[in-house]
Write a structure and sequence with these properties.
- The chain is of the alpha+beta class.
- It folds into three domains: about 5-105, no CATH class; about 125-265, Butyryl-CoA Dehydrogenase, subunit A, domain 2; about 265-400, Butyryl-CoA Dehydrogenase, subunit A, domain 3, CATH 1.20.140.10.
- It has helices at about 5-30, 45-50, 75-95, 100-110, 110-120, 265-300, 310-330, 335-360, 365-370, 370-380, 390-400; strands at about 125-130, 145-150, 155-165, 170-180, 185-190, 225-230, 240-250.
- The strands form two sheets. Strands 2-3-7-6 form a four-stranded antiparallel beta sheet, with no helix packed on it.
- The protein is globular.
């Protein structure tokens, strides 16, 4: 079990304060995820942007705010995500900032690419996106069909990605594509849909800098088509489909050119997914705690709802499982077993807690408590983020078979 020192306690307390702000805004964004202008400068969004941006790339006024410690980044992030998700997970995903793309840019990008990426996000009104999943390929990233073809004056990017958070309104993002047929040919490219090329420069308008209205209707540079998907839960995440048809990209769009071939695209994706699975598990645990505590605080009468103690005990156990998995990722980012165990357990907990909450407040509980009803919709989305339960079971089985579970 992870022992909380002073720093972890401070991170938890600061994130809890920001989570309260996210909760106050959650229903408004769920009702209209296109209208975000009134939330950009909120305390919750400001904290998320600050702590997820490296100190050297922050506005000067925010450089005194502590960032995550490199040796404990995953653990400290997990501690903050649990508390932010107790406020509202969808609001965390709706925040303009580095997000998942920032993880891969930090891992594979050179100094100029990181400067470009974080400079594009500095206005606090620009979303990033991470585009790997394809509708016909699901979890099998090595079978992706999106490709980048070489030509005399550069490269052309062609393909289609689906279920990509904030892609229809994103100003800059990472797209995975292949230059050949082997897994080693899969590369990550830093792109700006509004600029239309992978070259440095291009400020962009519309989708990346405004409220998001009309962002996904095909607006942007030639060859880009971006469409927001209809969402039942996690509506703030603004899941989207993007299609690219002969989009020009320059040499400096490729992340990892300065790294060995084996440390470029797919290697970076594996390390990123191992870290992000822990954070999805933290989202699920935080939402589970929020639902259980909401039921406790809004139950009629003097007696507590049946099963509350068990639900809270399971959530606390899952919280510590997530913290332990995050610490494992910090020690060895290439191990998939700990993060898969955490995500598998946390997702099941969130679904079970949502069903319990519906029963605990009576037949009309979700009708009379819209925030609780929203969370019950939101938790269904965690299953499909960074690998479904069956994919995690395969990782867990492999861990047992290879001895990783014992380690």
């Amino acid at each position: 079990m992870i022992e909380f020192d002073r720093r972890l306690r401070e991170i938890r307390g600061t994130a809890a304060e920001a989570g309260a702000d996210l909760r106050e805004r959650a229903l408004a964004v769920d009702a209209d995820p296109h209208s975000m202008e009134q939330h950009f400068d909120s305390p919750g969004f400001h904290l998320i942007r600050t702590i997820t941006t490296p100190v050297e790339h922050r506005p000067s006024a925010d450089r005194g705010t502590a960032g995550f410690t490199p040796g404990r980044k995953s653990l400290e992030t997990a501690v903050s995500v649990v508390e932010l998700a107790r406020g509202d997970a969808a609001m965390l995903l709706a925040c303009p900032g580095p997000g998942l793309a920032g993880v891969i840019v930090d891992l594979l990008g050179d100094d100029a690419q990181r400067e470009r990426f974080y400079g594009r996000l500095a206005d606090g009104r620009t979303w990033s996106f991470f585009a790997m999943t394809e509708a016909e390929r699901g979890n099998d990233a090595t079978a992706m069909e999106t490709r980048v073809d070489s030509r005399d004056d550069g490269f052309l990017l062609t393909g289609r990605k689906r279920y990509i958070g904030n892609a229809a309104r994103g100003g800059i993002g990472v797209v995975f594509a292949r230059t050949g047929r082997s897994p080693m040919s899969i590369r990550a490219l830093l792109v700006e849909p509004e600029a239309g090329t992978g070259a440095a420069g291009g400020t962009g308008t519309g989708a990346g800098t405004g409220t998001g209205t009309g962002a996904g209707t095909g607006a942007g540079a030639a060859g880009w088509h971006r469409t927001p998907l209809e969402m039942v839960g996690l509506r703030g995440a603004y899941l989207s489909e993007i299609a690219m048809e002969n989009v020009p990209v320059a040499e400096d769009a490729f992340l990892g050119n300065h790294l060995p071939v084996t440390r470029r695209g797919i290697w970076g994706a594996v390390k990123t997914f191992n870290e992000m699975r822990v954070q999805i598990a933290a989202l699920a645990v935080g939402t589970s705690l929020a639902m259980a505590e909401y039921v406790r605080d809004h139950s009629a009468g003097t007696s507590q709802p049946a099963g509350l103690d068990l639900v809270l005990a399971r959530a606390e156990a899952a919280r510590h499982l997530v913290y332990d998995a995050a610490a494992c990722v910090d020690r060895d980012p290439e191990r998939s077993y700990p993060s898969s165990v955490a995500k598998l357990a946390a997702n099941q907990l969130a679904m079970d807690t949502a069903r319990w909450s519906a029963r605990a407040l009576g037949p009309a509980g979700h009708l009379t408590h819209p925030l609780l009803e929203k969370w019950a919709r939101d938790v269904c989305g965690f299953e499909f983020m960074e690998g479904t339960a069956n994919i995690q079971r395969l990782h867990v089985e492999k861990g047992y078979r290879t001895g990783d579970a014992d380690a």
